[in-house]
TrEMBL record:
HTH araC/xylS-type domain boundaries: 100-197
InterPro entries linked to this entry: AraC-bd, AraC_XylS_family_regulators, Homeodomain-like_sf, HTH-like, HTH_AraC, HTH_AraC-typ_CS, RmlC-like_jellyroll
Pfam families: AraC_binding (PF02311), HTH_18 (PF12833)
Organism listed in the record: Desulfovibrio litoralis DSM 11393
Keyword Transcription regulation: yes
PANTHER family (UniProt xref): HTH-TYPE TRANSCRIPTIONAL ACTIVATOR RHAS-RELATED
Ranges in a coiled coil: none
Alphabetic keyword roster: Activator, DNA-binding, Transcription, Transcription regulation
Entry superkingdom: Bacteria
Listed GO MF terms: DNA-binding transcription factor activity; sequence-specific DNA binding
Protein name: AraC-like ligand binding domain-containing protein
Keyword Transcription regulation: yes
Length: 201
């Protein structure tokens, strides 16, 4: 059973705590994340390294740092993470410039029609070179980045009380079930669980 809560403070800081056996696939956050394992153990993978985090172990994940988290031996673990919104335009200007161009296009495009050819053309690159350069700079593939953006939009839609069926259609998921399964894969809980676990302060 995955039990995860989200406490948002002034849209600047989010406190995420949970107990889970869930494997979080490679993903990114826009925030600086600082956390601690409070029970059990998990495997944290980033920068081509995998570390065992046991009870009491701390971790720091920079904004847009691709990472994955897996329970050790499939056993339950608990964690507490503080996510702080950081201005990456100062931390990494080149990354910020590259992301901004891609994100601006995505924000001005119907989410259901996101495609790599469109993003590649906007960056004056062939599809192959765009995928290669994007992976080099961001650390994840454009497809993974698009999924991250869609999950973010699903979160926003849930909190604004949009129906899951409408969100699925709007964001280009094949159906509501596809949206729910993808959301749970990346968030560790279902959309319904998220709507009750999220608190704004």
């Amino acid at each position: 059973m995955n039990n995860i809560t989200f406490d948002n403070y002034y849209d600047e800081l989010e406190l995420v705590s949970g107990t889970s056996k869930h494997t979080f696939p490679t993903h990114i956050h826009q925030s600086l994340c600082i956390g601690v394992i409070t029970k059990g153990a998990a495997l944290l993978s980033f920068n081509n390294k995998t570390s065992i985090l046991e009870k009491g172990s701390h971790y720091i994940i920079a904004p847009y740092q691709p990472h994955a988290i897996t329970p050790l031996n499939g056993k339950e673990y608990s964690y507490l993470t503080i996510c702080i919104k950081k201005d990456i335009s100062k931390l990494c200007p080149e990354l910020y410039k590259y992301l901004t161009k891609t994100k601006t296009l995505m924000q001005n495009t119907d989410p259901s029609s996101y495609n790599l050819q469109l993003l590649a053309q906007a960056n004056n690159l062939s599809k192959y070179h765009f995928i290669k350069k994007f992976k080099e700079k961001i650390g994840i593939t454009p497809y993974q980045f698009i999924l991250n953006e869609k999950i973010k939009k699903v979160r926003q839609g849930i909190l604004s009380k949009q129906s899951l069926a409408d969100l699925a259609l709007e964001l280009g998921f094949s159906d509501q079930s596809h949206l729910c399964n993808t959301f749970k894969k990346y968030m560790g809980i279902s959309p319904l669980q998220f709507s009750t676990a999220y608190k704004a302060h």
